[in-house]
Design a protein that fits this description.
The chain is mainly α. The protein has one domain (3-56). Helix content is 48%, strand content 0%. It contains 3 helices and no strands. Helix 1 packs parallel to helix 3 and helix 2 (16-31) packs across helix 3. It is globular and about 40 Å long.
Length: 75
């Protein structure tokens, strides 16, 4: 995993848990055949780096519906 890509993605999504979930879900989507939203830098680029660049470029966003979230403690 490229640290520059990771740091750029962390600028967009500072919450580590949300970032991990975004990367995990998107990696699965790419493995199952979805097309990347950014052009791979080279043919052997890791899928995780592609996803981090997608996030850093603002191509992916996380939507959290707190009203319908289950098992979330209410404050």
């Amino acid at each position: 995993m490229n640290l520059e890509n990771l740091n750029a993605a962390k600028q967009r999504v500072p919450n580590a848990s949300v970032l991990i979930n975004m990367v995990s879900k998107r990696v699965k989507q790419l493995i199952f055949g979805d097309r990347p939203l950014v052009k791979p830098a080279h043919p052997d680029e890791d899928i995780e780096d592609i996803v981090l660049r997608e996030i850093a470029d603002g191509k992916l966003v996380a939507e959290i519906d707190f009203l319908h979230a289950k098992n979330v403690p209410r404050l």
